[in-house]
Amino acid sequence: MPFQPTNFGLLEEEDSRYETSRVVVLPVPFERTTSYGKGTSAGPAAIVRASQSMELWDEELGSEPYRLGIATLPPFLPEAFDLDEALAELQAEARGHLERGKFLVTLGGEHSLTLAPVRAACEAHGEIGIVQFDAHADLRAEFEGTPFSHASVMRRVVEDGVPTLAVGIRSLSSPEAALVRERRLPVIWGHELPVTPVRFAELLGGLPERVYLTFDIDFFDPSLVPATGTPEPGGGLWYPTLALLRELFRRKTVVAMDLVELAPIGGQPASDFLAAKLIYKCLGYLQESAADRPAVR
């Protein structure tokens, strides 16, 4: 039977074999704690489907990022009912790919899942920082009865001792604001967007060399991305965001990333396509940075 690609980018087998691919895409249709709009479990499939209609030549970089090799794995859904145990399952899965030297792209799903690949990246790479593009601080001690809520994921990261830089935050509670002040957590607030790459680079200087990128799609203004469960007005725009991401990959060794909180809207694929394109742009910036530094293994 001839090879029928169903992977990210609709790539041929020679460009998507696991063994030879620098990049591994892991769909994780995980949704347990969403608290307003639902539907993030459909996000990974929608992103992969939209990616299959992308042109693979990048006009900004003058290159084809898929030449890195992009392997797409079957969807991974933890079996455990307990949230802590479910995240441990995902952490073990992520760690296996990171320890093989892969650049892991985790497709969510809700934001709570980020804790697992972040912890896996710490195990595989040692000291890392995390750059968070997001509308929400996600620093609550717990939310709706669980400390593993999507609204608590960055609190767990901070408590793990991982340095952070948050970009685009424009929705948080009073206790979260107090934590930002007390811990002196670096934040670029939503009202400060667009921020210049120069200031962004200055704040990146406070993070370790290796970083993990978590991108909650609600970072963007809802006029660009309405398909998310907790939209907030006043978010990021496309080209200024790309400028920051390119600066991130230039300045730091990004070892893995995720994109979370896409909740597809039937008949309106623009948000799905933007999410897929954003991932592909990041892979282009990874490819560009690889010319200046060896792959982290």
The secondary structure category is alpha/beta
Rg of Cα set: 18 Å
Shape: globular
Strand order of the largest sheet: 2-1-3-8-7-4-5-6
Give the oligomer, counting copies of the same chain as homo and different chains as hetero: single chain
The CATH architecture name reads 3-Layer(aba) Sandwich
Count of domains: 1
CATH homologous superfamily (4th level) name: Ureohydrolase domain
Question: Class, according to the CATH hierarchy?
Answer: Alpha Beta
**Beta-strand content bin:** 5-15%
Low-confidence parts, pLDDT < 50 over ≥5 residues? none
Could you tell me the CATH topology label. Answer: Arginase, Chain A
Order of helices and strands: EHEHEHEHEHEHEHEH
Helix percentage range: 25-40%
Largest sheet: 8 strands, parallel
Mean pLDDT: 92
Instruction: Write down how many β-strands occur, each being a DSSP E stretch of 2 or more residues.
Output: 8
Total helical elements: 8
